[in-house]
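Hey,

Quick one before I head out. I ran the complex with PPE overnight. Inputs first:
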Amino acid sequence: MQTADLIWLNGEFVAWEDAKVHVLTHALHYGTGVFEGIRAYETDRGTAIFRHADHLDRLERSARFYHMELPYTREQLREVTHELIVRNNLRSCYIRPLIYRGYGPMGLFPLDNPVEAMIAVWEWGAYLGEDGKRNGVRAKVSSWRRISPDALYPHAKASGQYLNSVLAKIEASKAGYDEAILLDHNSFVCEGTGENIFVVKDGVIYTPPQTTSILDGINRKSVIAIARDLGFEVVERDIARGELILADEVFMTGTAAELTPIREIDDIAIGAPGEITRQIQQVFDDALCGRAPQYAEWLDFVEVPSKA
Ligand code: PPE
């Protein structure tokens, strides 16, 4: 991975290679952490963090599910993120805040362990490849179901929950696909390992509703808003597996993956990225990079990094 100079750890800026934890850190054993994936883009007016406030809100909500209180206010986390980007001299980057149960008593009762915080930033290119973003990726419906709401909170972005995505990702990758699509506990289409999913049929855009165990993606929300502003009908409803194959266009959204079209599912061609996918992707990219004034409110501008 592309490293940076500094990581923010529990209130201090430390060298990348010194950002360490004790091996008995609670989260390392039991997955008791919550995190965010955020991106900052270079715009004409400097570096801007996309929907920063929404990500910090979700971080706080994820922490609540697991009985953690953020050890810093959202405003403090926002400000140190700005400082971290500036001090690392980055113009665009991925931002990874993690709130986790630290070193303390072992065992599953976590509430006596300290709640710690870190933020890392680094340059991260196209998650499913530049070619994937342009020409679409090949996906496989996973044999693994998305975590069900009676076992965990699918709405939380919590570290331990990602073992589900890890299994699906390994399976898809070993079978030669770029990404997995997970069904939910009712066999409806849910999402990718780290992306929400959209299906286009006869000019209408469909995406699974929040009741389908999805993570409520911030890019999902952005793309729904953009699509509606472009005049498309967007319907949130259950999607049967077969509808993926019947679709005219399929695409995924996520912070890391941005908007990535899917060109093939389970070895059946969906086709090259379609007209509607393209149109939305264009406006979405413009919004991320500050070229869409109608979405300027989504940008949290960072002080321009000095070249000194
Ligand atoms: N579902 C899951 C399971 C998920 O992890 C993500 C983000 C999304 C949907 C889309 O959410 P949003 O980014 O708010 O639109 N996945 C993050 C983690 C990726 C990783 O490999 O780590 C991300 O995209 O940052």
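The helical segments are 26-30, 52-65, 74-87, 130-135, 162-174, 218-229, 241-246, 275-288.

Talk tomorrow,
K.
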